Amino acid sequence: MTDLLSRTLQQLADEAEAAPHLGPRLAETALHRAVRVRRRRVAAGGTGLITAGIAVALAATWSGPDGTTAAPRHRTPMSRFTSLPANSPAQLAFIRACLTRDPTIMIGSNGAFGSGRPGTRVADFRILATSEPDALGRTVWVGSTVAHLPCYQDKRGRPGPFKQSLTAHAWNVELPLSNFPNNVSTDNQEGFDPGTPSKAWEMHLAGRTAPGVTRITFTARGKTLSADVTDHFFIVRRAGYGRFPKPTQPFITTTTRLYDHGHLLASFPFTVGAMLFSN
């Protein structure tokens, strides 16, 4: 999570504690402050390339009665899962290929969490969920007991084609899913704009549901994004070449549906970053 977003959420959390009745309005304000555009310079073969990225960090978000979402406050670096999905040797090998070193763990306003501790090493990470395949490959959500981040897999199952980040976001799992409306939490939503139509772009949304859900769909503006739920984790993505879809507003309310092997369990409004549904 960025310093800017961390400071914003910290400020809003403090405001909400001082005036609990303003919580929903402050939550919506937090989301609208959360969108930022970052630019970084990458040196390749002595040539400087400007790369533009758009990141929306929605850490452990909840959806309120009116469909708005908010990001609860990170309180301690000890917020963690007690168990992770079992991975095959092939899955563990992919994680080692994706994470070429132990990732930096970002914990809200506390900044980076030291490496070398339990949950921060490459060997501690597992594949949580994998997006449905598209023409460019898949996005693979990986996590440890303390943090999570996306990895990218090309059509041949190898890391790529996007530049891999080695910064992971700490979990905020102090509240059980039963505290979230419809038992759905959004933990990570990001998009990458390469800044030129000749390169590929990607955007994704990753989160969790309660046990018993096997599939989740999000529908808005005539588009439906769907994902299988594995061990209550899911990730949906869009990717392609050409102009990066630019949203006209930061967030959009979707119709979200939960299924158990084809049986509809629930249908409800849920707010996500609008870039997933932009043209």
List keywords for this structure.
279 residues, mainly beta, disordered N terminus
Describe, in plain words, how this protein is organized in 3D.
The chain is mostly beta strands. It has one domain (3-30, 57-277). The protein contains three helices and 17 strands. The protein has a six-stranded mixed sheet with strand order 6-5-10-9-8-7, covered by helices on one side. A five-stranded antiparallel sheet has the order 1-2-11-12-15, with no helix packed on it. Strands 14-13-16-17 form a four-stranded antiparallel sheet, with no helix packed on it. Helix 1 (3-18) packs antiparallel against helix 2. It is globular.
Set down the secondary structure blueprint.
Blueprint: H1 3-18, H2 23-34, E1 36-44, E2 47-56, E3 62-63, E4 69-70, H3 89-98, E5 104-106, E6 112-113, E7 126-130, E8 138-143, E9 147-153, E10 167-170, E11 184-192, E12 200-209, E13 215-220, E14 223-228, E15 233-241, E16 251-260, E17 263-273
Parallel strand pairs: 5-10
Antiparallel strand pairs: 1-2, 2-11, 3-4, 5-6, 7-8, 8-9, 9-10, 11-12, 12-15, 13-14, 13-16, 16-17
Helix pairs in contact: 1-2
